[in-house]
Write a structure and sequence with these properties.
alpha/beta, Rossmann fold, 2 domains, globular
């Protein structure tokens, strides 16, 4: 008989979010879990449930015959010299040029979940490129905790240049239509907003998932169509949304924003099942694909 899986208290989920964002260390995270668990064994089980399980969450196999995937290295002379990433496109595209989507990871680097998101977009008939912001420190190390530690060692300004170089590269590929969208998650959501500011009319659409907004004074530079997703329980970012919404309205930016009731920060990440909210994630994904079809696939 399978052992009973303990319920994961909200306090433990909040502690995990603080831990993965570098606000508390591992010891403090474990101490907070122990305080809300009924026993040491239950605490260990809760921690195990909070850790990502990429194999269980994979939606599209890396060997899916419908796709052509590869790793590519992009020059980044203004950043760290180069940035490596994962490129996915439909196998049957042939010489057909496809709209391009940049997929930007959370603050742990290019983990298997983000590669899976790129494959999901390729199955929607986009060319997706997911760069690894940890390239300059050896790349994603195969472990999110180690990835988070490495993330703190990368020069953030140079990483921003690397991600911009990746965006320009995938947009400019000969098998691209020249139209670009960007989506990102947490850190990557903030990058999506920042690229919308930086790239102006060179970016067709941005879809940040629970990402920090740009400075209000910079919103007038946005020419892309922006679709924002936040979890209703993600208090800090939910509180930031009305001002961003108002600034985009004032600037005439085409945009929509959704706050998903009951969803926490990271609700789209099905590799972390205690944060994952399937109903919110499915709805957000449907809206994301429709947004890219409308604004990135369009030719006018």
């Amino acid at each position: 008989m399978e052992p009973t899986r303990p319920d994961v208290p909200r306090e433990a989920i909040d502690a995990y979010n603080l831990f993965i964002h570098g606000h508390i260390d591992r010891r403090s995270f474990l101490d907070r879990v122990k305080k809300v668990a009924v026993s040491s064994a239950a605490a260990a089980a809760i921690v195990d449930q909070l850790m990502p399980n990429y194999a269980a969450a994979q939606q599209v196999s890396p060997k899916d015959p419908r796709l052509k995937t590869e790793y590519a290295t992009v020059p980044s002379p203004q950043g760290n010299g180069s940035i490596r990433g994962y490129l996915a496109r439909p196998a049957n595209a042939g010489t057909t040029r496809l709209p391009a989507i940049l997929v930007v990871h959370e603050n742990r680097g290019l983990n298997p979940h983000i590669e899976d998101v790129a494959r999901r977009l390729a199955l929607e008939n986009f060319m997706a490129f997911a760069p690894d912001g940890l390239t300059s420190v050896g790349g994603y190390p195969g472990d999110d905790e180690k990835g988070g530690a490495l993330f703190g060692k990368v020069d953030r300004m140079k990483m921003a240049e690397d991600l911009y170089a990746a965006a320009v590269w995938v947009k400019s590929r000969p098998d691209s239509t020249g139209r670009l969208g960007v989506t990102g998650f947490c850190f990557g959501g903030g990058v999506a907003n920042a690229l919308a500011v930086r790239m102006g009319a060179d970016l067709a659409a941005a879809v940040p998932f629970y990402g920090g907004p740009p400075a209000e004074a910079d919103v007038t530079k946005i020419k892309a169509a922006v679709l924002v997703h936040h979890g209703g329980e993600d208090a800090r970012l939910v509180e930031s949304w009305p001002a961003y919404d108002a600034a985009m309205k004032a600037a005439g930016v085409r945009h929509e924003g959704y706050v998903y009731p009951g969803a926490v920060h990271g609700f789209n990440n099905d590799a972390t099942p205690q944060r994952y909210n399937k109903a919110a994630a499915d709805q957000a994904w449907q809206r994301t694909v429709a947004w890219f079809n409308k604004y990135v696939r369009a030719t006018s």
